[in-house]
Specification:
Blueprint (H helix, E strand, L loop, with lengths): L1 H35 L7 H19 L7 H22 L5 H28 L6 H5 L3 H9 L8 E11 L3 H8 L14 H6 L4 E6 L7 E6 L4 E10 L3 E7 L5 H7 L10 E12 L5 E11 L4 H29 L2
Antiparallel strand pairs: 1-7, 2-3, 3-4, 4-5, 5-6, 6-7
Helix pairs in contact: 1-2, 2-3, 2-4, 2-6, 3-4, 7-10
Length: 329
């Protein structure tokens, strides 16, 4: 019994030490990437290689005789590591909630993959303690960092469209589509992105004049500001604009999440606008489209989050315009 307790204590110390070293290594890679390129976290190394390599190292060292179950490799260690990374990101690295929410599924999935591959390899080899072999796993992210700049990333265009039917004529809807100067608390609708994850809500939009070339000055909560330069002005039918993000406005965006700026090397919102369609029963269908491009190692994943975030913001804006338009009746 005493021997069993000693063995368990030794195993616990070993696992804790492996986790501490793995987290310290991950932090070192994070700081190195940040020092070289602040947007470098959107990379193969950080998104794909690092979580798998760290988990492989921890599970290898934590199970020297290959006695533990598959659950230890693909569930227990990845879940604990993800929890530790989230806590460290919030408390010490001051990462934004949005970035953490987006990275968490990738880190958990790739950690589980790294654990699974390690479990399969351990079953094929002679069980033996080999810390040196485990340590070489951590060389993979370091090598990847050197190779990655040579790999070109594709740029993919995307768009998000939301539509709503408003019980008001096109002239009334157009009036509010041009801009609502001050959005009151409680206007709009509940959504995941703004009410759970914490994206700021629009606070108002002011049009400096009418016609093509005019500028809509948009304000969101928490001091976020940007401009929309009108490129197509068709009263009662269509309002289109190009987004403009001035350098002076980026500080407020960075406070939300410095890795997810709307005008960055990896992601840019380009243009968008409203299309109004009068219906036979006197109502109006209002459609809001936002277009963007992404250039990341995982464009398909970025599109999924764009559909959620931009879609929720768009649906909320449309709800505000509907409430204002129908309130005029």
């Amino acid at each position: 019994m005493a021997q069993q307790r000693t063995r368990r204590r030794t195993a616990a110390i070993r696992i804790a030490g492996a986790i501490a070293f793995g987290l310290a290594f991950a932090l070192g890679v994070y700081l190195l990437i940040e020092a070289v390129n602040p947007s470098g976290l959107i990379s193969f190394t950080f998104l794909l290689i690092l979580p798998a390599a760290v988990t492989a190292f921890v599970t290898y060292v934590g199970d020297p005789l290959a006695e533990r179950s598959r659950g230890f490799y693909v569930l227990n260690v990845p879940s604990f590591l993800l929890g530790a990374v989230i806590v460290a990101s919030v408390l010490f690295l001051r990462e934004g909630v949005i970035c953490i929410v987006m990275l968490a599924p990738f880190w958990l999935g790739l950690s589980a993959l790294g654990g699974y591959l390690t479990w399969r390899l351990r079953k094929r080899e002679e069980p033996a303690e080999n810390v040196f072999r485990a340590s070489t796993l951590l060389l993979i992210p370091l090598v990847s960092m050197q190779v990655e700049p040579m790999i070109p990333l594709s740029r993919d265009a995307g768009s998000v469209t939301r539509s709503i039917v408003i019980d008001a004529d096109a002239a009334t809807v157009w009036h509010y589509a041009r801009g609502v100067r001050q959005i009151r608390p409680g206007e709009g609708q509940w959504n995941i992105s703004q009410d759970l994850i914490g994206l700021p809500r629009p606070a108002g939009a002011r049009l400096d004049r009418e016609g093509a070339g005019a500028t809509r000055h948009v304000v969101w909560q928490e001091g976020i500001r940007f401009k929309e330069v009108v490129t197509d002005w068709q009263p009662g039918k269509r309002l289109w604009w190009d987004f403009r993000f001035d350098a002076t406005d980026m500080d407020a965006w960075a406070m939300q999440d410095r890795h997810l700026l709307p005008d960055s090397p990896h992601y840019r919102i380009t243009d968008g606008g409203y299309v109004l369609e009068p219906l036979a029963d006197g109502r109006t269908r209002l459609t809001l489209t936002t277009r963007y491009w992404v250039q990341t190692p995982v464009n398909w994943y970025a599109h999924l989050w764009g559909e959620l975030f931009v879609g929720d913001v768009s649906a909320n804006v449309l709800a505000v315009i509907r409430q204002r338009s129908e309130g005029d009746k």
